[in-house]
User: What shape does this take?
Amino acid sequence: MLPAIRTDGLTKRYGRVLALDGLALEVERGEVFGFLGPNGAGKTTTIRLLLDLIRPTAGRASILGHDCQRESLAARAQVGYLPGDLRLYDGLTARQHVALAARLRGARPDWRWVGELAERLGLDLDRKAGALSRGNKQKVGILLALFARPPVLILDEPTSGLDPLVQHAVHELLVEEARRGTAVFFSSHVMSEVERVCSRVAVLHRGRLMRIDTVEGLRARAIRRVRVRFDGAVPPRAAFDLPGVTVRHFDAAGAEFEVRGDFDPLVKALAQGHVADLVAELPPLEDVVVQMYEEGSA
Amino acid sequence: MRSALWWKTFRDAKASVGGVAFALFAIAALVAGLYPMYRDQLTDELFPEELRRFFGDVASIATPEGYYVSQHFAYASMLAAIVGLIAGSAAVAGEEAAGTLDLLLAQPVRRSRLLLEKAAGIGVGIAAAALGSLLGFLVLAPWVDVGLHLGPIAAAHLHMVHQAALFSAVAISGSAWLPTRAQAGLAGAAVMVAAWVAVGLGATIEALSALRDVSPFGWVDYEAVLRGDSWEWRGVVLDVVLTAALLALACWGFERRDIVAGPRETGGWRRYLVAGRIRGNETSSESPAAIREHPR
Assistant: This one.
């Protein structure tokens, strides 16, 4: 089956500035894919390339097999999009925005579904956008991305400006859409929401893809903290001079280590004593990603 | 219809269209209403020939057609063109600068279709402004002797529409190539003013008479049209062909270029040069500044 989104060596250069450098990734149908990176990492550039708003310097991108540049119309017909810096027409209501977008798509909106979405988001469809708060404008943007039930959703920071209750409603919607087979590709700075809804994550830094993995996979590869309590036999301190293991604390009662990579050498060293208790903490995704950014910067 | 893009474009320009239509209506009604009073006093000695030639290229002010061209059509055609310029400059660059273009282009719609639908909306706006002027004559015609038949007056208004459409196409073309409304408007206004000055100089200075032929304002002889002598086919064909060519150029340029991301408050050539280098990254989270922080 064709991937929902595929990029291959996707590159965008602005003069001397390389905004995106050979991005290669695949997003499958039915998955919520998080796209992470600090400001200027190339997230928005990638999204704009997928939507054919800008043209690549090299490489290619496709949506459900349609080339994003050569078959741009067919590709965009599969996509619901929420821009990161959403701007609406102040004189139009949410309902009129949907009608305009539907007309451009050449389709009639399913007003029952639109009404259901509006209800779940707590949005008044008949208020002009100019009179809406930032959060309510963001709801209109989400409505515009979802109303046509496209097979691919591309969302640039979808919960920005929303209160926690609505954020929760949006997460539920995205997960439901993914269960229906929709591919959800979204960028976010909020790691807790990425952890909650994403099945896989790509981390971008300075235009380069640093890693693609599941959330658990990313966390598992990060530095983990291990606390051990000894009872009786204590292994020699020298046994822990191991690659990837840093001893933070060590005495007869217990020890604390930071482990990068495989646990096996540590477990074998610990086996030389009697371990009464062992706690291995997976770090929060935020720490993992910050750690990756720092490594990337270094 | 209400969700069509051409209708929305027309509605977006309603303030400028409505204002100009009302102004043209009032001026037309005033000029036509005053005509019976001045008819017998109008002589060519009132205005030196150079002045008559510069403002409207009028042969004689003593005739009804000369009176109406010098007092109304010379300015009305300019005002209709200004409506076209204002709406035309907003067509793409206005949307792009406001950050709303992404909403439209995220849909499966060709950029050229979007541009042509907007051009159609602007055309309707220009026609509405010209209709305001025509209504000024029509309202007065049953009550006063305006000195002309309504057929030629309507024909002159049709010429006004295709002339203004050409200038709007200049602005639309600028709008499709340049990322801010100010730049597009400035480019269109520069062309319009140059055309207006060219026809004035061409009409008054013998050595520069060729300028009348290169200015769109010189392609329609409103005096002849109002006399009922002719339908200015040359002007119609030139305006229509050039309008079509400019729109084709606009589509070509718009289809090829990157769309600048996010809203921008100001324009300026320096800004454009920066935007040209760093298009596609001007969002709050991924600004050009942010990218420049990480030169490679």
Remarks:
- Chain A has a mean pLDDT of 91.
- Residues 219 and 285 of chain A are 6 Å apart (CA to CA).
- The longest strand of chain A covers residues 17-27.
- DSSP finds ten helices and 14 strands in chain A.
